[in-house]
Structure formats: structure tokens, C-alpha cells
Amino acid sequence: MDFELLRFIRHRPFFVAHWAYVWGVKGRYDEPKNEQAPDLDDLNDYNRNLYRNEVAGLIERFNGSLKAGQAKLYAPNIKFNREIGRWKGQKFHAQTGEPLGDRAYEEHLQENMPSAADKKLLLEIIANEKKWIAEKTGARDPLASIGEVRKSLSICESKSFTTEEGTETQEAW
After folding, report:
1. Is residue 160 part of a domain?
2. Do the Cβ atoms of 38 and 28 come closer than 8 Å?
3. Which domain holds residue 59?
4. How far apart are CA 153 and CA 173, in angstroms?
5. Along the 173 residues of the chain, how does pLDDT read in single tens digits?
6. Residues 112 and 51 in one domain
7. pTM (whole model) above 0.70
8. Shared domain check, 62 and 81
């Protein structure tokens, strides 16, 4: 194992994404409909932006159900609080993406990121409130139904045939 190569790759995630695309292991989420040539050094950021935009759209749909005057939710700007990629270590506003100075950014983090008390409260809720997420009704345990014929298969035709051992069996197709 070439540890120098591993060390090089570890600190250059764009390098891995680039070659993973070339080797056919990685792609862009919208690859089938994207006609532009891929920017191999920006694949991770490209996919991250697709994901963020999808989430932002879902949040906008949710905001449509809020009453007038209620604070709207938003997906943070892709540059906010980055620890990897091109925006790593830079200071930007969560909603607008505008650059912030050191002091303004620290104040902004205090207002927008969960505090130690928030994290502790969440862990207490998870540990003590057994029904903090409503149970799904009408659903069956998927493990209990292993071996049962699925509804999707019941609409298929079945065909009888004899195996090499001479036993007759049916197969859905």
C-alpha cells in the first residue's frame, strides 16, 4: 500500500471524485439529462448543490402551509459553515451567503447553530420520550413478511416447469 498516495488522496477529495467519474464509479445525479460536459474537479460541489436545491424546494413547499406571519424555514446557503470543498473555513451568512467578518460570523453562529444546551435537550428527548416520533400506522414489519409473495408479483404470470431434479415448480415472470 502506498501511504503517500493515500495521504495525497485524503487531503484532495476532488481528486478522488475526478478519477471515480473517469473510472465510471461516480457520476452526477442528473447525468442522464445533463448535456453539459462534467467539470471533473467540481463533481462533489455540483452534486451537493443539486441536493441542496432539492431540499430548498421541499422547504418552500412546506412554507406554503404556514400561517401568515409565521417565520419561514430556509435551507442554508451552500457556503455556510463548510468544512470541506471550496468554501471550507470561510465565513458566510446562513441565509444570504454574504461574506461576514470574524466577529459578525461568530455572532451569526450563536444565533443559527444549536448550542450545547440544545444538543443536550435533544438527546434527553430521544432517550426519554419513547413516542417523540409518531409510529407509522398500517405498516407491517418487513422482516415478518419474508417469504410471502409480494403483491407486485401476484399480477405477474406464472409458469410451471420441471427442474433437473424432476420436481415441478412455478416461477413468476
Report:
1. no
2. yes
3. 1-67
4. 8
5. 555 655 555 555 555 666 666 666 666 667 778 788 777 777 778 888 889 999 999 999 999 999 999 999 999 999 999 988 888 999 999 999 999 999 999 999 999 999 999 999 999 988 888 777 777 777 777 777 777 776 654 444 555 555 666 655 555 44
6. no
7. no
8. no
